[in-house]
Amino acid sequence: SDVNGDFATPPIVTINFSEAHHNVIPGVTITWGIAYDEYAVDFTVTAYNGDTVVATKEVIENVDVKSIVEMDIVGYDRITISISKCSAIVLTVYGFVGFVDAGNTFT
């Protein structure tokens, strides 16, 4: 990011699931860089089934290292987080423990 935390090209975190999940989840919790008080200020969470967007939520002016993004997500096989602005020049993403399990990939 630049000195203001803005990204010219937003980095995208992608979580791929081995199959589509059809039970509703009420959102996602993201843990950013707790050790250095780093967090995404502006970001978008998007859920897909194949190439079809099934849910999306834009978060603006976040100020927490633990972001709870409330949105109903159902019928998804991939979730992305696109970061537009961060609180620090370097941003470290620490947690997706709830999503990473057998058969799923995290990039």
Explain how this protein is built.
The protein is mainly beta. It is 0% helix and 52% strand. The strands form two sheets. The chain has a five-stranded antiparallel β-sheet with strand order 4-3-6-1-7, with no helix packed on it. A two-stranded antiparallel ribbon has the order 2-5. A hairpin with a 2-residue loop joins strand 3 and strand 4. The protein is elongated and about 40 Å long. The C terminus is likely disordered.
Kindly list the characteristics that best describe this protein:
5-stranded antiparallel β-sheet; 7 strands; mainly beta; 0% helix; single chain; two-stranded antiparallel sheet
**Structural class determined from secondary elements:** mainly beta
Give the topology string: H per helix, E per strand: EEEEEEE
β content, as a range?
A: over 45%
Main sheet attributes: strand count, strand direction, barrel closure: 5 strands, antiparallel
- Helical segment count: 0
Number of DSSP E strands? 7
- Average pLDDT value? 83
Please list the strands of the largest sheet in the order they lie side by side. 4-3-6-1-7
Shape: elongated
Separation of the first and last Cα atoms: 19 Å
Flag low-confidence runs: 94-107
Helix content: under 10%
Radius of gyration: 14 Å
How are the secondary structure elements laid out?
Elements: E1 12-21, E2 25-31, E3 40-49, E4 52-59, E5 66-73, E6 76-86, E7 105-106
Antiparallel strand pairs: 1-6, 1-7, 2-5, 3-4, 3-6
